[in-house]
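RNA 2',3'-cyclic phosphodiesterase structure dump, as promised
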Amino acid sequence: MARLFIGIKLPPGYQDRVRPLTQEMDKTLHTRVNWTRPGNWHLTLKFLGDTEAARIPSVIDTLASIERPAFTMQAGGAGAFPNPGQPRVIWLGLDRGAEQCEDLAAAVNDVLASVDIPREKKRFRPHLTLGRIRKPGKEDWQTVLDRAARETWPAFTVDRFTLWQSELKPTGAVHTAIAQFNLK
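structure tokens r here:
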């Protein structure tokens, strides 16, 4: 079994800036946050979870049938799931590219349904996860979110999406690209 997800890799300019941002935010917190590690930062389009190795070729073939244009994406704004009062996930939103990400995620859902991979039940909300909170403490989360929202992120072209394998290790997840799919 391989733990799989489909996502958009973020460019080096994003990867290099995530650690300084999360370290700065972490200085004001008493709560332990598992921050995203540089190199692993991505936008998830669909999480497949544990998938039998024999199914991977059909997943790749099916994803290869998706035809969508390349688009511009840019992070901006910040928020928390399920809400800023009791956050479990701290994230950045998108100033540009949200609609295209939603369309691409819908296409991924549609084609994978044809190979018996269930559709997502929840509405897709494009976001870039900064960190996961295991046990929220009494923090001023709005200040943390405001700090994240002040960061200015460059626009970049999304010209592909990736099928990733994610291995959970004691030091954190290790993501390995299995296949990439170009956007036209």
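Residues 98-113 form the longest helix (16 residues).
lmk if u need the other ones
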